[in-house]
Amino acid sequence: MIKKILLIRNDNIGDLICSTPAIEALKKRYPEAKIDILVNSYNLCAIQGNPFIHRIWSYTKTKHVKGIVAKIKAFFHKGWILYRLKKERYDCSVILRIAHSKHAELFSKAAGAPMRIGVSHPQRKDSLTHPLSIQESLHEVMVCFECLRPLGVVYGDERTLWMIEEAQKRRFLEHQNKIILHISSRLEANRYPLESFRELIALLAPKECIITASLEDKAGALDLASAPNAEFLQTQSITELAALISVGSLFITLDGGALHMGPALGIPTLAIMGKTDPRRWAPWGEETWAITKNSPQEISEIIRAHYVL
């Protein structure tokens, strides 16, 4: 009987958000089981407060900290977690990834569960008891369900989930029902021209737009905020950005981890996709739209067809 399960999702925020429907389905399949998850300090915010998780193990990757002292602390804390996982006596561990990861498998191996599920190494150089091979064109949400298939878990129309505390939402209530427009993307190929954003904001008038951006795009965001129906708001963390999105009426974003935040918060989301395959990474949910780098006019027409300005 499976009473204790360890999930491993130690990569990016969007990936972890896409795991949440499968986590809910897993809890439905094993309602009495304790489901723990191993994440990293970067994507931790995406799973905090999740009602289907019993315990969160979080470590800091050395590449995410600066300075030799901080790196040493991160290294030893990771070692402590590896040691503690062995003491937990898990019945099963599952690596939620589409490809094999030696770093993720390290945690699975340390836990020493009799049932270890995950995508196999190309040459089967792994310690998995239930090696998987997953179709590369599947959406990441369905990839996670494939990872849980050996446990009898199937998709039952679960949606992505991000929990926000009411106190966090209250900080942004003055921006309630406005359009939240996130203009940043980590990859250059996924960016959208500033002039096109400017035209789109004008086409969305008189609806007010709140512009958000990473620090490196702050100058461009301030420039866009000169429009009469636009305002720039600099959030200080990913959690703050999530709280802001949660009070909006529509979230418009570029291709990246942020595009999964809107649907997980229950907010209609339009993602302007770049080079990423929408079949794999489009926002998941009913009120979501994934489009390529259409013209501002085409984007505004799509919005007006589905959303009342």
TrEMBL record:
GO terms for cellular component: cytosol. The lineage of its organism: Bacteria, Pseudomonadati, Campylobacterota, Epsilonproteobacteria, Campylobacterales. GO terms for biological process: lipopolysaccharide core region biosynthetic process. Coiled coil: none annotated. InterPro entries: Glyco_trans_9 (IPR002201), LPS_LOS_Heptosyltrfase (IPR051199). GO terms for molecular function: ADP-heptose-lipopolysaccharide heptosyltransferase activity. It holds the Pfam family Glyco_transf_9. Keywords: Glycosyltransferase, Transferase. This is PUTATIVE HEPTOSYLIII TRANSFERASE. The keyword Ion transport does not apply. It comes from Wolinella succinogenes (strain ATCC 29543 / DSM 1740 / CCUG 13145 / JCM 31913 / LMG 7466 / NCTC 11488 / FDC 602W). SUPFAM superfamilies: UDP-Glycosyltransferase/glycogen phosphorylase. The keyword Glycosyltransferase applies. Gene3D superfamilies: Glycogen Phosphorylase B.
